[in-house]
Amino acid sequence: MLVVGIIFACNVDEDMGYGLFVSTVIQCGGAAYIVNALSADCDQQFAAVLAHATAVFNLLLAPLWVYSVGVYLFAQPILIERLIGLSSLIVLLQLFGVLLRWKKPSAAIAVLTWLSQPLLLLAGILLITLGVYINQYVFQYINKQLVAALVTTVTLAYALGWAVGLALRLGTPRCRAFASHVSVFQGFLSIPILRMSVPSP
């Protein structure tokens, strides 16, 4: 509900506000785990547990949250079956990776070496080539209200995550992991989910 209050307080356009809301609800932990992995003073195992736990909780809570708040506050219809299906796919792939690493570590290393790395290389090339083309249009839609909402959302999420970590006495490395986890959002995941789950106008 924090981001909903920020969206309305900053007077963000309804469509952009809905996109920001969905991006903050659908986390799945991947981007936050990368940020934590690059951090020097962070509990990596705790960050990995948070990433997997978020994926499971996302499957249970994100469709309900996006459907209820999206329909009633933003008046945005959404194809809930597609949202649940895409969230389930992410959870199943993460569980498959965990089980493969647990049962057959050599097979998990082979998958990372021969499948994941080439796909990541292709995705990186695609991101760079298409990103330059796409981003020239993105900057036309940036406005002060949206920037204020984004900065406020990330800052308050990090501060609240750190405060919760201190209240639970997690220690500095885990506080940093938790705060990063709740303040880093999945734009790469929410954009395709929005494109597939929200009916075209």
How much of the sequence lies in strands comes to under 5%
- Describe the main β-sheet briefly: none
**Overall 3D form:** globular
Number of helices: 9
Mean pLDDT comes to: 77
- Number of separate structural domains: 1
Distance linking N and C termini = 26 Å
**Succession of helices and strands:** HHHHHHHHH
Poorly predicted segments: none
Number of strands: 0
This entry's quaternary arrangement is: single chain
As a whole number of angstroms, the C-alpha radius of gyration is: 18 Å
Q: Helix amount, in percent? A: over 70%
Overall structural class, as computed from helix and strand content, comes to mainly alpha
Give a concise summary:
The protein has 201 residues and is mainly α.
What does this structure look like?
α4 runs antiparallel to α5. This protein is mostly helical and 201 residues long. The chain has one domain. The relative contact order is 0.18. The radius of gyration is 18 Å and the shape is globular. The model has no long low-confidence stretch (mean pLDDT 77). The protein is built from nine helices and no strands. Keywords: Membrane, Transmembrane, Transmembrane helix. InterPro entries: Na+/solute_symporter_sf.
